[in-house]
Amino acid sequence: MPSTPIQTSYKRIITLDMATKTGWTFHDGTHTESGVETFELARGESNGWRFIRFRQFLEKFPPADLVVWEQAFHRGGAPTELAIGMVACVLVFAAERNMLTKPCNNKTLKKWVTGNGNADKQLMGIVARERWQRTFQDDNECDAYCLLMWALAGCPESEQKPTKKRRAPLKTGTGGLLK
Prior knowledge:
The chain has 179 residues and is an alpha/beta fold. The chain is 37% helix and 17% strand. It has one domain (13-152): 2-Layer Sandwich (Nucleotidyltransferase, domain 5), CATH 3.30.420.
């Protein structure tokens, strides 16, 4: 399903902070469950096994109205490959069940929680524990819970302005390569 502006009327929400250690929450409109699931590889396993296990993990969630995940900054390499693969799994999972999806940029979440889009994990944890009077296993569960609170608040967008100029669009056309 396409990403969509959020209405606070969504009751059942899944949030994910996806990585090898994935923080998650499920909110059913009244109660919230949360935790951390690990997708480490055993010796000799291909990377595909992470995605198989992640997909099996997603299948355990009850039906939801909305799936929200933290959209991390991609620097390349194995972490980016993992993040892209997990997002693809989430999009397929949600589409098959007619669930809406909404990514949240990590700077947007940090700014919403702490007031600073460049806040570190430690500050996020401190502010989240104080704000919602809750303890977390680690920063992954904390981020997933912050995503849930952000979603329940209607997914407010950051007021932060882009800091870099956008590049000019690429020229279209084949440049004479295909004739």
